[in-house]
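queue> pop job 88
queue> type: inverse folding (structure -> sequence)
queue> payload:
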């Protein structure tokens, strides 16, 4: 199968998507029990995974992103994508050789003494080869895969078609992932990754950022040999954080390595600016001296100043047990859906945070996280689309830290690192102290009295508003379902009329199909407009 052939790729992906959509609709119309739905999502995950491995390219990265969305997608589906890796067979050396010489506009031997023809690493977009420059310096030469630009463009066109279809015909639940925003975010990140000049800029930016941090090592880059398709960097030897035998021989222990990982990545997640969006074990190594080595800055995300402020406030709220403030931060960040009840969320956070570190020793962390994912799916909580890459980076580093240290030590490691980071923030410390004071029981009494007096009126207003919203949403959903059924009836009628050569049936079915389709689109447009209005109104 020719993976770079436009028709082959589009037909494979579109046919897979169509079969998945039809199965979901069929189960929905027949009102299948929950057990049957679990089996279906397992089958869908298996088919999805198989197609990704066969076609590779951009699709692998999409699978990796979806594997982090346990807050939205069924566990049976997520399970099939857990160990999805961005590792594909290397390209033919002759093609790689041609790309390098084309980009350098010179024969290869004019810049390098030697280069290994076997790739050190091979991913969906680029491959890395080890070479030696004329002055004897060992370098890593990252080369873009042949035809990857056209493959990515084909995949984006195909995804655009699928998202358009899903947006208009698939009954996506309220608060589900915004596919349009995700598509836009994904396109920006991948297009950036396809331009190695931008990766060079990111690498230099991170190198400047960590120049005074002794525990971090970032390779130097050779700008004069780097182009949009070739990136030449210093060759850095490192140990994978998954290599248990090699880690035990280091000067630093695993606890210290876990602490250093948090120290390196925590500021990226809490401060405005860019963060490493792909910190998998091949991109985050450790030197013999115990330094954290950061590689591959092709995928980076960005945190705005506003979001950084709320993230900082969220962690401070957890540490001071000020769950009212925590819920406010979650709401401002977009993690809570409009129908979320703040009081319920405060009690839930208080219960979760009441688990003491010593209790974690008695818990099966994996089972606990699975139960937590199920609970999150049942609550009005979502991960905003703009934080998909941040969430992926966090989940990856969290898994690495848990592997390095015992599970019950996670909180003990993170807290002092956060406090150390906080002490460097200057005036922000006083905001932390003020939040601690607000969290004390004596301070909360004044707020509680006022809120208690206003509670009956607020509850009545909330109840009335929610009932009206639910009633309106039900009307839209019922109308869409009826119009969709009429559209299907029209399609069946058209097929029957054409097969039986019955003009009247054919014409009536065409008319029914056109009218019901237009009605469905109009109803769907009005529903989306109404939901957007209600969401903005609720947040004001």
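queue> result:
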């Amino acid at each position: 199968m020719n993976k770079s052939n436009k028709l082959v790729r589009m037909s494979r992906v579109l046919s897979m998507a169509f079969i998945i959509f039809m199965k979901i609709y069929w189960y929905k119309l027949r009102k299948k029990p929950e057990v049957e739905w679990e089996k279906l999502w397992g089958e869908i995950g298996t088919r999805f995974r198989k197609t990704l491995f066969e076609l590779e390219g951009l699709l692998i990265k999409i699978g990796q992103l979806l594997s982090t969305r346990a807050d939205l997608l069924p566990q049976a589906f997520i399970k099939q994508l857990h160990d999805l890796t961005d590792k594909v067979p290397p390209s033919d050396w002759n093609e790689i050789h041609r790309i390098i010489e084309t980009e350098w506009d010179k024969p290869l031997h004019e810049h390098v003494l030697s280069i290994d023809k076997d790739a050190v690493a091979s991913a969906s977009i680029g491959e890395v080869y080890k070479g030696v420059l004329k002055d004897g310096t060992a370098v890593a030469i990252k080369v873009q895969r042949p035809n990857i630009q056209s493959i990515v463009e084909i995949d984006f066109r195909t995804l655009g078609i699928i998202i358009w279809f899903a947006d208009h015909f698939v009954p996506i639940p309220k608060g589900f992932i915004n596919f349009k925003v995700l598509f836009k975010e994904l396109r920006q990140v991948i297009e950036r990754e396809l331009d190695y000049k931008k990766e060079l800029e990111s690498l230099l930016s991170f190198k400047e950022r960590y120049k005074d941090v002794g525990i971090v090592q970032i390779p130097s880059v050779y700008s004069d040999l780097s182009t949009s398709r070739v990136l030449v960097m210093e060759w850095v030897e490192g140990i994978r954080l998954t290599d248990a035998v090699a880690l035990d021989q280091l000067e630093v222990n695993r606890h210290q390595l876990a602490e250093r990982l948090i120290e390196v990545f925590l500021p990226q997640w809490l401060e405005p600016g860019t963060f490493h969006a792909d910190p998998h074990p091949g991109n985050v190594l450790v030197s013999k001296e115990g330094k954290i080595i950061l590689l591959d800055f092709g995928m980076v995300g960005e945190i705005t100043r506003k979001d950084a402020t709320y993230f900082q406030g969220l962690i401070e709220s957890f540490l001071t047990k000020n769950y009212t403030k925590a819920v406010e931060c979650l709401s401002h960040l977009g993690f809570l859906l409009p129908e979320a009840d703040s009081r319920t969320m405060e009690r839930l956070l208080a219960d979760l945070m009441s688990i003491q570190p010593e209790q974690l020793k008695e818990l099966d962390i994996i089972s606990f996280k699975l139960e937590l994912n199920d609970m999150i799916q049942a609550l009005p909580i979502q991960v905003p689309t703009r934080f998909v890459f941040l969430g992926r980076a966090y989940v990856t580093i969290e898994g690495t830290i848990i592997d390095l240290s015992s599970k019950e030590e996670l909180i003990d490691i993170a807290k002092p690192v956060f406090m150390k980071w906080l002490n460097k923030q200057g005036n922000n410390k006083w905001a932390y102290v003020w939040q601690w004071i607000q969290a004390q029981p004596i301070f909360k009494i004044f707020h509680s009295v006022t809120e208690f007096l206003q509670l009956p009126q607020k509850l009545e207003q909330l109840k009335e508003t929610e009932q009206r919203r639910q009633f309106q949403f039900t009307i839209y959903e019922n109308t869409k379902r009826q119009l969709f059924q009429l559209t299907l009836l029209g399609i069946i009628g058209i097929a029957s009329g054409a097969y039986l050569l019955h003009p009247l049936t054919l014409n009536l079915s065409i008319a029914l199909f056109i009218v019901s389709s237009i009605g469905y689109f109009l109803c769907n447009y009005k529903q989306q407009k109404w939901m957007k209005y209600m969401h903005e109104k609720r947040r004001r």
